[in-house]
Each structure stands twice: as C-alpha cells, then as structure tokens.
C-alpha cells in the first residue's frame, strides 16, 4: 500500500489527488496512445523506454492532466490539443495506389535529422514535403498520415490523473485477467448498487487485485469502515491500490481478516505478547512485543467488528464459490443491505441465482451485464470505435431481507384447499416465480429487471 | 440523507417493494393506511420493525417488503416528472466525472431528481451538489423532496435557466453534468463555474447524434480537451432451471421404438382384418383394443428402463411449456434451505431478456485542464501550421 506518511502537507480536501507527489505511481499517455506507468521518486530520473528520460522532480507538485515535451531531461508544458476542423478538399484517394505510397526520407536520413536536434514536427513537415502524392490525398487520409508520423517521433506525453475510471481502464487494458475482467462501467455499477457512501460499513471480498477495494476506498474518502476478507494469512497487498496514490487517511479505514480468522468458532493461534516486564531484555525485544500486541489487538477488534454485524453491503469479486461466501458473510449484514457479486462467467452467477432465489432471505436476485461502446469523436468522422471490449463481466445483485414465514401470497388462496397445498404453492412460487410461474405469483414476476426498468 | 437506523421510525421515507415492477416510496405517517393489491396495512404497523422486513398484511393474504431507500431504489420508485436517468448511465457518469466524497458537482436540469439523489449520496456532506431547474413547479417539487429526504444540506437547488443566466458558482465545481435539450448553450457558463487549479470534467447527456456534434464543437471552442463519447446499457439476463439436455442417442432409440411399434400395429391390423373377414361373428372392437393396451404397457416398461419419464417419451421434441412444467414439478424439493447443488438432471441457464433497452443517450465527456500553467493555447502548435501545399496549409491540423 502506498501511504503518504506526511499527510499533513497534502491538502487533499481542497484538491484530492490532483497533484503529483514524490513517490506516486503516475500513468503517462504517449503520443501513440500507449500508457506507461512510472514512479516519481524524488531526485530520480524517469526512463520512458526508447522514448527518452526526464528528471522526476520536474513532475512533482504538478497538477495531473497536463501535456509535456521532453528536451534535455527537462519538461516543457505544451498546450493540450483541441479538435481541429478538417475541411474536405476536392482531392480523393482515387488516384493513389498503395504501392506508390513512397517514403521519401530514408531511415538514415531521419536518424540524422533527429540527432541534429530537429523538432519532431519539422521531421514530419519534411516528410510531408517529400511525399509525392500528398496533395492528391484527402484531408482525412492526410491527417491520418500525419498522426501516424507524429506518434512515431514526438517526444511528448500527458499525465493521467489516477481517477478510479482511469486506473480501472489502465488495468483492464493491460491485464484484464488480473482484475477478473472488471471493466470501469461494471465497477461503477457495483459501487452504486452497493450504495457505497462516505460513512458506510462494508464487507468486501476482492480477488481482483484490489480493484474493488480501491473503488470503495476512493468513494468513501476516509469515512467509515471497509472490512475485506482474503485468502492469505497476512493482509493482502492489493496491487491496484498503489496506482490510486491514496493518502493514508483514505486507506486507514481498511482492515482485513482471512477465511480462517473470519470464522467465529476459530481461535486464531497468536504468539504470547504479555510477557512479564522483568523477562523483557532488549529494546528490540520490547518493540517486537509491542508490535505483536498491536497486531493481536487489531485482529481482536476486527473480528469483533465483523461479528457485531449490521454491515451495509457485501461486495464480492471472488475466485471462490460465491454462494459459500454469501452463506458465510450474509449473517453479518443488516436488513435491506445490498449484495453485489461480480464474475467474469455468467454460468457462475446463473447457478448462484438459482440457489439464492430458493431462499427467502434474498430479495429478487438479478443477473445483469453491462455493455459499453466508445465513439471516435472527430469532425466529420464520428463513429463507434472499430474495436470494443467483449465483456466487463456479469453482476448479480440482491437485497438481504428478513423473512416472515407466516406471510402468504395474495393470490394463492384461490387455489388452496388444505393447509398443505397452500405451503406447496407458496414454495413453488418462490422457487420458480421469476422464471415460470407468472400467473400464480404476481409478487414474484420476472419481467423487467430492477436495475434496468 | 434518509434514515440509517436499524428500525423504521415515524417520519421515515421507506421503499415498499410489492413486486419487481411495483416499487414505491412511502412516508411513514402514524394514523395513515397503506392499501394495495397485496393487502392492507397501517403505517403504525411498520414503526419499530427492522428495515428489510417482509410484512404480512392484516388479513394474512399478501405481503410486502419494506426497504431502506437507496438512490438506486429511489430511481425505480420516484414519481416521474420528466424522463430520468437510470443506473447504467448514472454509474458511468459518476465514474468518468470522478465524483466521490467531497466533490462539488453541478447538474442541470434537476428534472425528477434521479441523478441528484445518486450524486448527493456519493459526495456526502463533505461535498455539494448545485442543481438547476428552470421549470418552476418541478424545481419546487424537487426542493421539497430533497428536504424530506434530509439532503438539503448537500444540495442547493436554484430555479433558473442556465442557458441564459449560467450557474451560481465561479471556479468551484469539480464536475458538471448537463441533461438539457441544448447543452452547448451552457458550455461556456460551465467553464466559468469549473475550478481551474486542477483537471475538471464535464458530461453532456443527449439522445441524438446531432446534439452531440453541436456539443462537441462548443466544448472544443471553449477549450475542453480529451473529448470522447460513450454509450452504455445494462442487459438483464433471465435465469431458468431446466432439465439437462437430452442426447440424440435417446431420441433415435425412441424413434426406432416408435417405428417398431407402428410396424407391430400394422401387422396386428392386417391380422385383425383377416380375422374379421374370416369370421363376421367376431366383429368386436374390444379385441383390437386389448391388443393396443398390451402394446402400450410394453412401451412404458421399456421407457422406464431407459430412465426417461412418461412425459418425455410422449413428446420427443420438448416444447418450452413442457420444460417449464418440469421445472414447476420439481420445485418443491428445491425449496429446502441452503441447497448445495443444482438438483440432479437440472441445470441453470441464462439468456438476455427478449426485449431490452437499446438506447438511452450519448454521453459526451471532456476535460478542462489547469490553464494557469501555460499561456492561452494557440489553436495549433506553430510548427504544424506550415504545411507544404496551398490547399492544405490552413486546414491540415492534428487532432487530439
Ligand atoms: C430530462 S430532465 C433531467 C432528468 C434528470 N437528469 C433526472 O435524472 O431526473 C431535463 C430537465 O431540464 C430542465 N431544463 C431544460 N432546459 C433547461 C435550462 N435551460 N435551464 C434549466 N433547466 C432546464 C427541464 O425542465 C427538465 O426538467
């Protein structure tokens, strides 16, 4: 976890996370749209591949979102690019054959130009001048050509603010398996469905590298309690959290247990820390004992916190059987609490839905999938992106309720002849209501989804 | 914002869940009744019971669930005064605009307040929502609602036309959300309201592409960058428990048996005809019937050995109804608590609902980066302006 110890110096309240600090993980967008992750260690030199290098101090204390050009390891702020109108001319691609698309400058010539310190835009200009067919091309393809060239030579980059959206998108594109295909839109739906707000108390099971925990922490802004249950013996090091550059006040509300210590009947094995004072010899031993005492105390209070229950929501992105997770943790939820489960596979959630809808404690478990399409926005050329993410995973959402076994469906009495029949009809309705018994049970109808209507 | 107590109290706003399609708010007022298709209740019956309770009606016929309001439930329960935003768009906009605890957000217009409730929840009392609505009655209704829901410390509602008068704050907002017919008319005002010491963000919500294009030009001219556009939808999936699929080997066995049976019948028919013509005295239908009964019982026996049910053998191609019937039949054993596995011979399948929402609106986003750090941006980088060809020189520019 990337905690900033001297949080006093950070005015995160007035501009949360908007400035780059020493030690931050910073995402850079290069002209060819590649994203790089760098660390701004004070007095270090940042190397961005063959692209160049610069002094990290140049970025420290800068606001996020600016565009820079590298020269002599120094950075110059350049204006952000605005969309430019491209007016079509009479030229078309009609007279241009691909084979004739000649490259007037040789690699060596470009190398010489580069070494002589010629600015990237001058190289591009030169290439365009020598491009035999250039004037024949349409404005559109000219622009495409220029953009391609520019991406190759320009030494500029833009810093990307570590918003939840940007960090999620970065991880999704870089390694979507590690965040269990959790796309930014799906994650945002989870956070809303789980009603995450400052001051709430949440249970979370995150086997998605900390993507979900990051989202919850960011939304809560240091107010409330997040209890994560993990499968490791010590608190998990969620890799995604480091990209969020959280202040320690944000992460301090996170505590964790594992699947053993989260069991009420289990007595965690703890080495003794209450050794009589006269037996404590060295200072080192003393500090070790103090640490041990703190760990023991944290474990005790976290367990107490969990077992005291009444949590506001349970958010799950697990590689384990989600039903077993719900079975274990739902008792610690308050009435009307949300349960949100993400999984990359719909089969897992279909099975889960079948199990949950047979139980009276879960109101209307619903499976949904988010769909997201991005558009290219260019003057005269606005259209959906050619490539699109196939799936950001699936969600199951339900609300924990307290059953009243004496309650009966309003229309079942028509058919009931004996007490026995009534209960059967009732249970039948509960099990199948959503899929197949529309007529008998209007109270369990499945038509429009809760989340979509 | 809304009660966080475990139990319901007089004066609380609760959500009554009747069915997944009938979800409505209720302001708990002792002395009042709540009557519905699903039974009759007294508000006072609800006081003191925990949120999330299933409550049986006074007659025992029908029940309701009483839930704690959340912005997501509110979106499903609220009185519609305008078109509203739903979960998928709200969540995505919140995320892209980086709205979180402490954010200061502008929205126009307020409409039915669906988006407002979600934002107020997310920013909390450390943040603020400035909401604008030019329709007086709507503004009044929304402002009453915000008060009743205990959000009036988080939301400031102003009755005004933002396309004419702009917003009430300067250099303060972290994010702006415009759900107006002509958002481009408010873009310059939005820029004034946004803070300039950090990157801020804007979203314009428009159903038509023509609106998007006008918005994009306005944003571009005002100096917004990183302009991008998304569409997002939510596809609900329907899950059903169905018998595992039959292998075709079973089907071919059945076909063969049916064929054999037909042949047997044919031969019997011939035999019967012969008998009939041979002896007119024995012209009685009973003989044939007896033979058929025999054949029938034989068939059932073999089917049982195949572990197939009688229904299945009676219709080789299972219709959708028969699938559902089978699900119904097997329902009762499923209802036992904590089922650990799908019952043998059953599987859970899911498919997207046949009819889903196809379009809500286009979400146009853009950023405004801190400007104090550099002088007013020239329209294009100087070096790039000089293109070699006359006709290209004025227009050959590089897009972001
Ligand atoms: C579609 S509704 C907004 C719905 C809202 N986003 C929600 O989720 O409930 C649009 C609202 O904007 C208001 N409106 C339209 N133009 C306006 C303007 N120029 N200034 C202020 N409000 C305006 C309309 O009266 C209407 O109530």
Automatic annotation (TrEMBL), chain A:
Keywords annotated in UniProt: Nucleus, tRNA processing
GO BP term, example: tRNA methylation
Main subcellular localisation: nucleus
Lineage per the UniProt record: Eukaryota, Fungi, Dikarya, Basidiomycota, Agaricomycotina
GO cellular component: nucleus; tRNA (m1A) methyltransferase complex
Pfam families: Gcd10p (PF04189)
Family: Belongs to the TRM6/GCD10 family.
PANTHER family listed in its UniProt record: TRANSLATION INITIATION FACTOR EIF3-RELATED, TRNA (ADENINE(58)-N(1))-METHYLTRANSFERASE NON-CATALYTIC SUBUNIT TRM6
Biased composition (Polar residues): 434-444
Subcellular location per the Swiss-Prot or TrEMBL entry: Nucleus
tRNA processing listed as a keyword: yes
UniProt keyword annotation of Disulfide bond present: no
Name the record gives this protein: tRNA (adenine(58)-N(1))-methyltransferase non-catalytic subunit TRM6
Protein species of origin: Crucibulum laeve
Top-level taxon of origin: Eukaryota
Disordered, as annotated region: 414-453
Automatic annotation (TrEMBL), chain B:
SUPFAM superfamilies per record: S-adenosyl-L-methionine-dependent methyltransferases (SSF53335)
Cellular compartment(s): Nucleus
Keyword annotations of the record: Methyltransferase, Nucleus, S-adenosyl-L-methionine, Transferase, tRNA processing
Entries under CDD domains matching the protein: AdoMet_MTases
Comp. bias intervals (Basic and acidic residues): 296-321
Record-linked PROSITE patterns: SAM_TRM61
Superkingdom of origin organism: Eukaryota
GO cellular component: nucleus; tRNA (m1A) methyltransferase complex
Main localization, broad class: nucleus
Span list, region Disordered: 260-321
Domain tRNA (adenine(58)-N(1))-methyltransferase catalytic subunit TRM61 C-terminal: 62-367
GO biological process: tRNA methylation
EC number: 2.1.1.220
Top EC class of this enzyme: transferase
MF (Gene Ontology): tRNA (adenine(58)-N1)-methyltransferase activity
Catalyzed reaction equations: adenosine(58) in tRNA + S-adenosyl-L-methionine = N(1)-methyladenosine(58) in tRNA + S-adenosyl-L-homocysteine + H(+)
Pfam family, one: GCD14
Binding residue positions for S-adenosyl-L-methionine: 133, 179
Keyword tRNA processing annotated: yes
PANTHER family the record matches: TRNA (ADENINE(58)-N(1))-METHYLTRANSFERASE (PTHR12133), TRNA (ADENINE(58)-N(1))-METHYLTRANSFERASE CATALYTIC SUBUNIT TRMT61A (PTHR12133:SF2)
Annotated function: Catalytic subunit of tRNA (adenine-N(1)-)-methyltransferase, which catalyzes the formation of N(1)-methyladenine at position 58 (m1A58) in initiator methionyl-tRNA.
Family: Belongs to the class I-like SAM-binding methyltransferase superfamily. TRM61 family.
Protein name in the entry: tRNA (adenine(58)-N(1))-methyltransferase catalytic subunit TRM61
